[in-house]
Design a protein that fits this description.
Blueprint (H helix, E strand, L loop, with lengths): L8 H15 L6 H8 L3 H7 L3 H25 L6 H10 L3 H11 L3 H24 L4 H21 L5 H21 L2
Helix pairs in contact: 1-4, 1-6, 4-5, 4-7, 5-9, 6-7, 7-8, 8-9
Length: 185
């Protein structure tokens, strides 16, 4: 008989994110998670005080991986290529998970709060890149809001669009911003 690998907290979080992407919020019940993991409820509750603590953990992990880590990786690039780096990283995220988080946030207060925080962090990060590129704070914020709305909206309108096509749209958007910046110079 082969001994099963210990299923730790990070395994539960990874499973939760995968379940959310595949099945939406209905995949996040303790029963569904335990069935998918082939583990007992006791194993789940060994790591999480309750279901809300689990939701907090998966949302924190999503925020870290899909926002904070992306921003940190983007800032490693030289200033002139940060927009392209951000585009490549953001457009290669698991967009099924991104859409699932947005859907889940409609019904779950923890997910809703985390999503609001992430939307603000992402928008402010993009605005910061525009400020570094010489735009005024107000103009940078406005353009960042438009760009982020387009990023999120394109995931909903064109969910099957390839990352390369999304990046091509990002380059077109950047061209429009340059025209705006040059016309205001």
């Amino acid at each position: 008989m082969t001994k099963r690998k210990r299923f730790d907290k990070t395994d539960w979080i990874s499973l939760g994110l995968a379940q959310l992407a595949r099945e939406g919020g209905s995949g996040l019940t303790v029963e569904a998670l335990c069935r998918q993991a082939d583990r007992t409820r006791g194993s789940f509750y060994h790591h999480f005080a309750d279901h809300s603590a689990f939701i907090e953990a998966i949302m924190a992990a999503w925020k870290q991986r899909n926002t904070i880590d992306v921003a940190e990786e983007t800032l490693k690039a030289d200033q002139g290529s940060r927009a392209q780096q951000l585009s490549a990283l953001a457009n290669n995220l698991d967009l099924d998970l991104e859409r699932a988080v947005r859907q889940f946030a409609q019904a779950n207060v923890i997910a809703h709060q985390t999503l609001r925080e992430v939307d603000e962090l992402r928008t402010e990060f993009v605005a910061g890149l525009y400020r570094q590129d010489g735009l005024s704070a107000d103009k940078a914020r406005e353009i960042a809001m438009i760009e982020y709305a387009a990023y999120v909206g394109s995931q909903i309108v064109w969910p099957e669009m390839a990352a390369s096509e999304r990046m091509k749209l990002d380059r077109q958007f950047a061209s429009l911003v340059r025209l705006l910046k040059d016309s205001n110079a």
